[in-house]
Please model this.
Amino acid sequence: MSTIAEVPISSGQINGATGRTVVNADDFRKRYFKGTTKKQWNDWRWQLANILRSREDVEKIVKLSESEACAFETCSGLPFAVTPYYASLLTGTSSCDAVRRTVIPTHMEMIKGRGEADDPLGEDSCSPVDGLVHRYPDRVLFLVTEHCSTYCRYCTRSRKMGEIHSGNIKERWQKAIDYIKATPQVRDVLISGGDPLVLPDASIKWLLESLSAIEHVEMIRIGTKAPVVLPQRITKSLIKILKSVRPLFMSIHFTHPDELTAETVQACNMLADAGIPLGSQTVLLKGVNDSVDTLKGLYHGLLKVRVRPYYLYQCDPISGSGHFRTKVETGLNMIKGLRGHTTGYAIPNYVIDAPGGGGKIPLIPDYFQGKSEGQIMLKNYQGNTYLYPDEVL
Ligand code: SF4
Model:
């Protein structure tokens, strides 16, 4: 991290989605990254080279609570990393702030609750070759890196994040590609990690070209948080590479409406303008986004930048996640509070990724009330009951 200068932060800007005053990125840069030019700040490689990785780095920006400070001293496992850009969202926050809670560890991570596990989805047991999870018959999850620019404290793959491999990464990728080539039922490949967009353009191009050269691969998806934590990564040259592969879909990990900054909006618009279908994935987190108003704010903001809310995940029971996990009833209440109260496009699928490897199971509130004398009883979003004739001649 660069040198700090005591330049006062003069003005704030209003986040269009939440109305929250956020610090001006220029002021933040001048104060905390003295001598850094705007051009450097807007370069994703500079952002990666200046990631905040330690207690000392983060303490220059926020005052840590006892619980947060304790976590830096005692937590091992999932590394700590936040891009300078995303750190700008943390200025002036308390330890209760929604966005801050998702990236700064607390001592709660050390408490392993009942039913929690390091690999709750049993991914390691569905891995035919290193870096590939083959759970559903027609699609695979291709984990191309174990690194992210910013680590989410509730990451399902915490157990792997930050891992360094000694061998050649391309040889590892090639083994996964060879498996996909030899498995004709795989028609859909989800490239994830870690965050694939921390890789250089040349690697992304190589991966996409190698996969699209396989005849039976009909579609490719990229799972990423880059537009949210590293929006500078969405460059014209990256867009050119992404545009060369059809059909390519992108799932973007969003958590809270405070993330919809001018930079993130621009990144999403660039991707949408390139014709890449965009969907969001959000993990339901206690005290972070478990209110209908917060989710509505996020989903309305996403639709404005052409990102379709796709999945709302019940938080996976990874070790030390108890402080993040809500009851399933809370998730169902989120959907109840959205369905009928806003446009259907703003309503994601609420799912639990079944522990042990059962795959995603959708959960919907009890709109179906039962059957009686050839009629289906249904409850609408206002709680009124309706009958549908379920007999056909
Ligand atoms: S961006 Fe995804 S892979 Fe990276 S830490 Fe967050 S949840 Fe995990």
